[in-house]
Amino acid sequence: GVASALCARDNAGEIGALVVVAPPRTLAELRNAFSDSLRGKIIAEVNKDLTHHPVHEIERLLTGAPRPKM
């Protein structure tokens, strides 16, 4: 479903670049399901499961920002 939705948005011209974040197995499945056009727009892949992380932690992990000091 995710791959189909992203391919549809790509076909509509709504995607210029894409960063894909998913667990390794899911990442492989997505890669196989994406159209050639969409695969060409992937600028980064992160093979991590960030499902249960809070937004601020995801932002930190994806930007490489240091952990805040306690």
- How many E strands? 2
User: SS-based structural class?
Assistant: alpha+beta
The number of helices is 4
Strand content: 5-15%
Order of helices and strands: HEHHEH
The shape, in one word, is: elongated
Strand numbers in spatial order across the main sheet? 1-2
Largest sheet: 2 strands, parallel
Mean pLDDT: 91
Helix content: 40-55%
User: Between the first and last Cα atoms, what is the distance in angstroms?
Assistant: 40 Å
Low-confidence stretches: none
The radius of gyration is 14 Å
Describe the structure.
This protein is an alpha+beta fold. The chain is built from four helices and two strands, in the order H-E-H-H-E-H. The chain has helices at residues 2-11, 24-33, 36-39, 55-63; strands spanning 18-21, 42-46. Strands 1-2 form a two-stranded parallel ribbon. The chain is elongated. The model has no long low-confidence stretch (mean pLDDT 91).
